[in-house]
Amino acid sequence: MRLQALCLFLISASIIHVEAQTTTPPTVSLLSGAIRLARDGVSSSSYSSGRVQVYGIGAANSISNRWGNICRFTSFGTSEADVICHQLTYTGASSHSYAEIDSFGNDNYTALLNDVSCSNDNYLMLFQCTVSTTVSTLCTAREDVSVTCYSTRIWDDPYNGMVRLSQGDYVNTGLLEVYCKGEWGTVCDNTFGAEEGTAV
Questions:
Q1: Residue span of the signal peptide, if any (predicted)?
Q2: Angle at CA of residue 175, ends 81 and 41, nearest 5°
Q3: How many CA atoms lie within 13 A of 25 on its CB side?
Q4: Per the omega criterion (within 30 degrees of 0), is the bond before 89 cis?
Q5: Over the stretch 32-74, which tens digit does the pLDDT of each residue have?
Q6: pTM summary value
Q7: Is 70 exceeded by the pLDDT of residue 7?
């Protein structure tokens, strides 16, 4: 198979490897911090509202390498919902709720987080906020949070130098792209390393 360009495939802010771009995109594994939305236990990248599910929080062990929910106790509010929607590439949250009163149904996951607190609603990733992986016994399935995001995407009004990750299974994985002179383009450089990945 003839190789095309060498392009960088990133997972979140950590560089994994330089991948030869072919007709088949590389397969990547999930990393701690991926977020998705679900309705009636079924997740979809097309949802802009639903039950918040987060992957692999805490230490790198078999207990944390799974999907789970976020408990609303004790500080979940508008700022935290905004940050979750930002991580999902939306411009913010129009509302937030929890399982006892929302219409998104239940799933089979337990809570991985509570005491989520974001001091700045402009954060782009949940783990810029403070979280607790010691989940309160008050955190039953009825307390799992949900969000409804605005339908507009962060990328709808890009500026020169804006970066994004595309073609990934989740929004914290994908091919690094930069917006320049009216179009999105990939970053191809075999000297790209961990320091540059962290900067992204």
A1: 1-20
A2: 40
A3: 13
A4: no
A5: 788 999 999 999 989 999 999 998 765 444 455 789 999 999 8
A6: 0.75
A7: no
Residue 74, token pair as written in the block: 């004790």
Q: Quote the tokens at residue 93.
A: 């949250």
Record the tokens describing residue 50, joined without a space.
């639903």
* Residue 200 near residue 15, CB atoms below 8 Å: no
- With DSSP H G I counted as helix, E B as strand and the rest as coil, what are the percentages for the chain, rounded to 5? 10, 35, 50
First to last CA, the chain: 31
Q: What is the β-pairing status of strands 67-70 and 111-117?
A: parallel
- Cβ atoms of 154 and 90 closer than 8 Å: yes
3-state SS class at 141: helix
Comparing CA positions, the residue from 200, 196, 192 lying closest to residue 164 is 200
Q: Which domains does the chain have, with CATH numbers?
A: 6-29+155-199 (no CATH), 36-149 (3.10.250.10)
Asked if residue 178 lies in contact with residue 185, where contact means CB atoms within 8 angstroms, the answer is yes
